[in-house]
Amino acid sequence: MITQLSRRSFLAAAALAAGAAAWPRRTLAAAPLATAQGPAAYRYRLGDFQLTALYDGTWFLPIDGKFVTNASGAEVNEALAAAFLPPDIMPISITALLVNTGSKLVLIDCGSAGQIADTAGFLNANLAAAGHTPDDIDIILISHLHPDHINGLRTKDGGKVFPNAQILVPEPEWTFWMDDGNQSRATGSVLGYFRNARRIFADIAKDVQRFKPGAEIVPGIVAVPAYGHTPGHTAFSVQSGTQSMLVMSDTVRNPELFARHPDWQPIFDMDGALAVTTRRRMLDRAAADRMLVGAYHFPFPACGHMIKTATGYELVPSMWRPL
Ligand SMILES: [Zn+2]
């Protein structure tokens, strides 16, 4: 005797079999799983300039309760959970910005060259995907001398990566890191940053050009002082025609932590209080003027707009779109 239930099961199985016959490809052998992401280069326009976001990778930094000096580990983990991120790990996404002004290819900061984490160091692969080689780069603008912004100038074994590029650094930043007295007073990770900066610039220091805060470095790109993260930390205003963009460098870093909680002072900021003032000033301006912003540690493609909320700021990421 066929029960109601088994009759239903039979009908369902028959329907499935009919479906399989109608859609035979759905049951063919599975494709192998991919082992790598696709290229991560994203182009967009700004006036007559063409910008390309070049992803270098993500550094998953383990953090403890002391990572933010004026918030507890529990509060930081709560903010990570609110962004659907696991606790005790700070995901530091790295994206450099290539600006094609029509006459020059300008790269703003240059990735980690695999010298910080195995999960970062893909900038040149993505530069190739965007149709360029390192030889094509005319100018490299450095925002500050932390390793994740300058290590891309060298291969792991010390070779020069961008043989034809002029390298330009902020004057106050250079003065700070190249001062032997400052280095002699440094300890811990900051001492490491001093040694790293000297390794990277060892035999090219004499060729490095320095620019002053507020200077127009190349036509359409102006240095904007953004001190606090480091003594000479610099943002950039990029303008072409009637369109402009604020490249905030490390003023904010992870938006889910430091845009939502602009007063938080991570140990990365060498002068935490000054960094907060700079962050608030820049985010206020970006939100009030509805400016397009870019930031080195925003999620790829690391550009969008900021809106002011009751307690802080929120990133509205740019939507991926055809050129
Ligand atoms: Zn950084």
Topology:
Layout: H1 4-22, E1 41-46, E2 49-62, H2 73-82, E3 89-100, E4 105-108, H3 123-129, E5 139-141, H4 147-150, E6 166-170, H5 171-177, H6 180-184, H7 188-201, E7 209-211, E8 216-218, E9 221-225, E10 234-240, E11 243-247, H8 255-259, H9 272-288, E12 292-294, E13 303-308, E14 313-317
Parallel strand pairs: 4-5, 5-6, 6-7, 11-12
Antiparallel strand pairs: 1-2, 2-3, 3-4, 8-9, 9-10, 10-11, 12-13, 13-14
The structure holds zinc ion.
Zinc ion binds next to helix 4.
Task: Write up this protein.
- The protein is of the alpha/beta class and 323 residues long.
- The chain has one domain (41-317): 4-Layer Sandwich (Metallo-beta-lactamase, Chain A).
- The chain is built from nine helices and 14 strands.
- The longest helix has 19 residues, at 4-22.
- The mean pLDDT is 93.
- Residues 146, 148-149, 250, 296-297 line the site of zinc ion (ZN).
